[in-house]
Each structure stands twice: as C-alpha cells, then as structure tokens.
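Subject: for your reference before the review

Hello V.,

The reviewers asked for a structural picture of the protein, and I figured it would be easier to keep everything in one thread rather than splitting it across files. Below is the amino acid sequence we used in the manuscript, unchanged from the supplementary table.
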Amino acid sequence: MTKALFPGSFDPFHNGHFEVVERARRLFDEVVVAVLCNPQKGEPLFSAAEREEMVAECLAEFDNVEIVSMTTLVVAVARQVGADVIVKGLRAVTDFENELQMAQMNQQLSGIETLMLPTGSAYSFISSRLVREIARYGGDVSAFVPDSIAVRMKERFGA
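And here is what came back from the structure prediction:
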C-alpha cells in the first residue's frame, strides 16, 4: 500500500489544491492532507482547526483521503503517518524553484522523495493569497474555491 502526504497551509483551500488531491488519490492508495501552520506566511485568515474542518468538508467524498494538522517539520509528519512520498503542486517556475529546494532538504533529512504535480492550466493562476485578497475587497471567489469555502469567505469578510 502506498501513502502520500500533501502538506500545505491551505488558507484557504482552493480548487488548485482540490485538483492535486484528486489526482494524487488516483496515484496512491491513501493520501494524507496535512494542514500546517507556516509562521513565514504571517497570521492566517483561518485557524488551523478551521482550515482542517474546511478541508475535511471539501474532501469528504474521497474515502482514501485523511486530514491532519501539523505544527512540525513536514518530514516528521510524513514519518508519523507512514507516508512513502510527499506530494506538492506546481503552478509556475517560481513554485518549482522553492519546491525543489524543499524536496532536496526533505530527502536529505528523511530519505522521503517528493513528487511534484503540475496543476492543470485552469488552476495555474490560483493562490490562497490572491483568493484572500479578492475576498477582502468584496470580490467573488466562488470560481476559485469549493462552494463551502466561498460561503466561509463571505462570512469572514461580511460580503
């Protein structure tokens, strides 16, 4: 049985994230989506518990996907959940440069390989940062996030 770990801050979880999970669950027997707290990204819009709940809602239809939260190194979570591989989504060359460095470090620390999945062109421009910015200024994010996330974004920003 092969198990993949898909880590991210998911603040918020968007359609590009959903696509990576949907594809990874077809490649691996089990996918663990790890909601992380990334202090480098500043104060999150949603708490880790809220993000974990939102991701679980979005992925409830998939029986081979599990959701966890993490506040440690990705490789520690990978070991903890028994992951064989770390999965990361790539939107652009700039993502690749950053993800390559992390993949090499994670491999050096743990021996766990990273599989990078390029997103489909329909999602290559979506980022959580842009979704937050659009919502913050009253824009409609429903084309970029699952329905349940769009509702929570409206509630958070009062739009």
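For the response letter, the relevant points are probably these. The domain at 3-124 is CATH 3.40.50.620 (Rossmann fold). The radius of gyration is 15 Å.

Happy to draft the paragraph if you're swamped.

O.
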